[in-house]
């Protein structure tokens, strides 16, 4: 399996994190997810799941920060394509990020609430407090459609894929607040 992105690795472009004008962010959160393609998937792969996790937050907040979870992306012709800003227009199932830890400190715009958009169940772009953080994008090819619903938790996902993983790969994307 190969992960392809339309930018030079390992650096995640500014447009997918906090380095944006304030009016393009929701309380410092960038909701625009980055595109990626997974190729050379095994024939046994029916769907793909992914996670984007910042483990560099462990010394800062005491745990890894989940930025994005996705599952049940169908494999077509041995690949999966996730377009730019897919998190806001997704047809795949998205899990819960770590925003519930700070949700009392942020607000959701009325327009989002009216269309049922929950910030905790979508992409939440990088916003490291300091230094360069590595954001691990892990792709998991599975031999089934997982029984997940919107807002599933990462620990639930880990239990559900048990015995169904046919391949897994990852790439680290680097990002720093300017």
Structure summarized in a few sentences:
It is built from four helices and eight strands, in the order E-E-E-H-E-E-H-E-H-E-H-E. The chain has helices at residues 58-61, 86-89, 110-114, 154-160, and strands at 2-4, 36-39, 47-54, 65-74, 80-82, 93-94, 132-142, 165-176.
Q: Report the β-strand fraction as a percent range.
A: 25-35%
Number of helices: 4
What is the CATH topology?
A: Phosphatidylethanolamine-binding Protein
Corresponding CATH superfamily = PEBP-like
Overall geometry comes to: globular
Low-confidence runs = none
Q: In order across it, which strands form the biggest sheet?
A: 6-4-3-7-8
Number of strands: 8
The overall pLDDT average reads 92
Question: Under the CATH scheme, which class?
Answer: Alpha Beta
Please give the alpha-carbon distance between the first and last residues: 33 Å
Main beta-sheet annotation? 5 strands, antiparallel
Nearest-angstrom radius of gyration?
16 Å
Proper CATH architecture: Alpha-Beta Complex
Helix content: 10-25%
Coarse structural class: mainly beta
Number of discrete domains: 1
N to C succession of SSEs: EEEHEEHEHEHE
Structural features, described:
The chain has a single domain, classed as Phosphatidylethanolamine-binding Protein (Alpha-Beta Complex). It contains four helices and eight strands. The mean pLDDT is 92.
Keywords for this entry:
178 residues; mainly beta; Phosphatidylethanolamine-binding Protein; 5-stranded antiparallel β-sheet; 4 helices; 8 strands
């Amino acid at each position: 399996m190969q992960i392809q992105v339309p930018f030079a690795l390992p650096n995640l472009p500014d447009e997918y994190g906090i380095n944006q004008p304030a009016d393009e962010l929701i309380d410092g959160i960038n909701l625009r997810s980055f595109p990626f393609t997974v190729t050379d998937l095994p024939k046994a792969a029916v769907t793909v799941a992914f996670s984007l996790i910042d483990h560099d937050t462990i010394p800062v907040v005491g745990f890894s920060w989940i930025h994005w979870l996705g599952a049940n992306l169908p494999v077509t012709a041995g690949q999966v394509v996730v377009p730019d800003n897919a998190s806001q227009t997704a047809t795949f199932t998205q899990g819960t990020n770590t925003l519930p830890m700070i949700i009392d400190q942020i607000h959701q715009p009325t327009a989002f609430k009216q269309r049922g958009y929950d910030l905790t169940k979508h992409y939440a772009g990088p916003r490291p407090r300091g230094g360069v953080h590595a954001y691990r994008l892990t792709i998991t090819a599975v031999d089934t459609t997982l029984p997940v619903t919107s807002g599933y938790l990462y620990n639930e996902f880990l239990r559900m894929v048990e015995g169904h993983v046919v391949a897994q790969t990852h790439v680290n994307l680097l990002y720093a607040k300017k």
